[in-house]
Specification:
mainly alpha; 299 residues; Glycerol uptake facilitator protein; disordered C terminus; single chain
């Protein structure tokens, strides 16, 4: 015969096994759930531009003896800056948004890796704004050095190239386009390889940005004669900021509007080409991929 205490203990055991009501989310928690992914892309892209354009600003402005008696770096320094910015940006955003920080990669992930298309507009907008803000911060930091380098308040492409890409005069329009296309094809192709567990070479999540650092540094030093955007947000966001800062219409008219077909159209096409090559010649399925269905890590 059970006692009252035994009955109470049994009742408590039954109650504890019953499903508990979930706590209601506060308005702020619901808001955070919506913006967390885009904000990770914003911060990741901003950091990419801060480190990359910051290195470019240090190298370019100190080449003028009016700014510094000793130059602070060279072409390799600029490539290191962009590669470091990429790695830091992915480390910051990877665990939250899968670290695309590149509209071309975001669209490729939606096309080939089931990243939700409904998230694509917010991610791309966040990436572009991140590029704009990152450029603004670097410009504010180097404003005096840029003034001294130019020797006047009139802004020219000599310092615009710190932030955005222009093809060298010796390059044809076709070769400039192909460089951006080829670089982004390689970039997306390697991203697909490094995030596929079936290859047996996938780095741990914490080391993935380091692998991307090596890749980006290699692409920059080997194929970087146009400034190697490989990323529409890394070029268009800063370009919009420079227009706001008074750099003039040359930003949009150089080499028959290079800004649209070089650092924007070519990376989108190149990322699709890289994903296509991997999917149709090396890929064996998504089942064991490191990343969740939202998409894989990119740049």
């Amino acid at each position: 015969m059970s006692t009252d205490k035994d009955s109470e203990a049994q009742l408590t055991a039954v109650d504890s096994s019953a499903p508990q009501p979930q706590a209601r989310l506060t308005p702020y928690q619901r808001f955070l759930h919506v913006i967390r992914g885009p904000m990770a892309e914003f911060f990741g892209t901003a950091l990419l531009v801060i480190f990359g354009a910051g290195a470019g600003a240090a190298v370019v402005t100190t080449a003028n003896p009016n700014v510094s008696a000793t130059p602070k770096g060279d072409f390799l320094s600029v490539n290191f800056g962009w590669a470091v910015g990429l790695a830091i940006g992915i480390w910051v955003s990877d665990g939250i948004s899968n670290g695309h920080i590149n509209p071309a990669i975001t669209v490729a992930m939606a096309t080939w890796r089931k990243f939700p298309w409904k998230k694509v507009p917010s991610f791309i907008l966040a990436q572009f704004i991140g590029g704009l803000v990152g450029a603004g911060l670097v410009y504010g930091l180097y404003f005096r050095a840029i003034n001294m380098f130019e020797g006047t308040d009139v802004r020219t492409n000599a310092t615009a190239g710190i932030f955005v890409t222009f093809p060298l005069p010796l390059m044809s329009s076709a070769s400039a386009f192909f460089m951006e296309f080829l670089g982004t094809t390689i970039l997306c192709f390697v991203v697909m390889i490094l995030t596929d567990e079936r290859n047996g070479i996938k780095p741990s999540p914490g080391l993935y940005p380091l692998a991307m650092f090596v890749l980006f540094l290699g692409i920059g030093t080997s194929l970087g004669m146009t400034g190697w955007a490989l990323n529409p947000a890394r070029d268009f966001g800063p370009r919009v900021f420079l227009a706001m800062a008074g750099y003039g219409k040359g930003l949009w008219t150089e080499r028959s509007a290079y800004w649209i077909w070089g650092p924007i159209i070519a990376p989108f096409i190149g990322a699709q080409a890289g994903a296509f090559l991997y999917n149709y010649f090396l890929y064996t399925g998504l089942k064991k991929s490191r990343s969740p269905p939202e998409g894989t890590v990119g740049v």
